[in-house]
Amino acid sequence: MATPHPAAPDWFLLPPAEQQLASGWVGYRHVTGVMHWHHAASDEDRLSVALVIPTPSDDDSGIAHALEHMVLRGSTRYPEPEIFLALRAELTLLEFNATTQKESTRFHLSGYDPASVLRGIGFMSDCVFSPLLNSDDFDEEIIRHTVRADGLGLDGTLYRELTEYQRNERFNESVDMAVNSEPRAPLYGGMTDTLQALDIVKLRRYHNTYYRPENAVLISSGSWPMIGLWRQVSKALSHVGKALSTPDDDDKVRHERPVSSPAALPELRIETLHFSPYWACVLHPALRALRCQKKLAEMGATLLPLNSDFQPKPTLRFRVTQHTDISALSRWLEHVQQELSARRIAWHSQYFALEQGRLMANRWGDGLQRLFHDFAISPFASPYLKAMPNTETLPHESERLLSEPQGEWLSPCQPLRRLSILCRCQARDQATRAAIERWLALCQQRTLRWAWMKGSPILCDIRQWDCANAVIIGYTVDLPVSDVEALRQFWHHTLRMNEIEAIPGTWQRTEDGMVFLGKGSTPVYRTGSIMASHKDEDSAMHVTLSFPHTVEAGDIAVLGQAVMATSMIQKRRLGGRCYAVSVGIDLMHYELTFDTVADGDPSVSFIALLNAFEVLSKPLDDPMFEKACHGGLGLVSAKYNKSQGRFHRALLGMVGQTSAIDVSKTTPDSLVNLVTRVLAALKQPTLH
């Protein structure tokens, strides 16, 4: 029998028969039906949480995506549409956003500060269950008709977002593959030509149907103040009424792709071959080899990407002509399959899982990647959130698995860690740089050989970072946490520093790999005035502020979030004239960047930015200043701690910098002084 919690009587601990304690998860249920699964076995020091709503899409209208945008425009407790943007500029969080997936919408956040995460989940919960969904907000956030100098046009934040996507060649290839495959995959995010089929009434119906407490799943990890978390969610659930009956909408909206003239191009179609997702992951990299590409060209077939956002399940697809012999193609693929060694089969399958894990970590951060992975492999995860086991499937099961719905396909990938060999030398010392590059290439060869013999794939790269008069060349390896100690020991016992002992400098072994500091390579930072550069593109504004190192890093971070909190910047985003206005900080180069995406008029955005600085030329009151300080800490934390934080901190340490900024030295007057200097730089920027 479920037991109510003494401090939160509307939350019940699931009875033992329904618990999953063996897998480290503890289950709770709210009286309205919301399920909460907390990963008590997680050793995460971050507080991560996601409120997941099942939002199936069977057409191209983008209704789930549109509703995700709309619910964050205000709720019963937070009626102002700018609250979401204000909280993003104020809270000390690593991640605070929402994402529409193939079959769900996720409202997720992570951070270290309990007060910030509680405020964040309180806001998101109220928006999910009690949104305002006003028609005026629909016009600005989704789509509206506008009058322009060249006639009538369309506008709106979501419309501009999709416009920007449709400029991307890779996105268009994914759309083409989705609409021409069998079965056809819905373009769940919507397209610019399908948004016009939506209206506020349809969004309200969709919300009433799917955004129900009994459908929602709350998942969390970390040392949460559980009572505080439940109380925040309970406040949002107190406004929820019963579901209303809504008529079914049988009108399916489809995106119409431009059709090329049959006389100009041969008749093409997409053919899907019945290999299981496991074998698709194994065969796809083998088919990209030059020998196989030549064979496919002879057969009149072109290998298509393994998956996409619209078709996340790994599948072998080919673009073929009317003359392609599909039976011969299938027989040849079976021959390729039989030729693969057991070691290569395991390598390809695990490598795909690593790629998917890194993609999730880059997108949502390490904390949420671990949370989603740990929940996906649990036995009680909903079908659309469950990861398929990355194991071999018997051949006779392949066709059955291909026809079954596989949800959003979370490939099981345990948490990743990045080890690195970082080398610093003088930027003009070409001989030393060449010697380091040769040695790192040798390190890469040895490491790949070690990984191959161990049967554990890795993701590795050799990169370069320029900073003042120094250059950092690094070899990075992303691998599962379980393999970190083995690789660290391999490096420490195999890579010999005397191999490049002719290079003067100091070596050091660290917990994250190895570090070399070349003699005389200490960065010499500039002093003087602030420099600004401004570049406008067709649909984007880019402004970069470069600060001398005499300016406190805390002042720079606080300034960035103070700008984002101004009404001029928020109105630019909320008015539907651009998809996003963002701020970024780079403590290696001491730069602050302001960018817009899918901007209808970048020059107007630049004027709004100037006006924001003009407003900040007067001292902020204490509450606003305090919010800007907290936001500054969040800006730096999101940049350097969201994903692979240990590596980013080590990289900053190579140039004598740290992500542990101090905002206690920042005052309203020092902020005004910095703004005055920035305005002087912006009045004479370097134009590109």
Automatic annotation (TrEMBL):
Domain spans labelled Peptidase M16 N-terminal: 58-141
InterPro entries reported for this sequence: Metalloenz_LuxS/M16, Pept_M16_N
One Pfam family hit: Peptidase_M16
Chain coiled-coil ranges: none
Family annotation (Gene3D superfamilies): Metalloenzyme, LuxS/M16 peptidase-like
Domain of life of the native organism: Bacteria
UniProt name for this protein: Insulinase family protein
Organism: Enterovibrio norvegicus
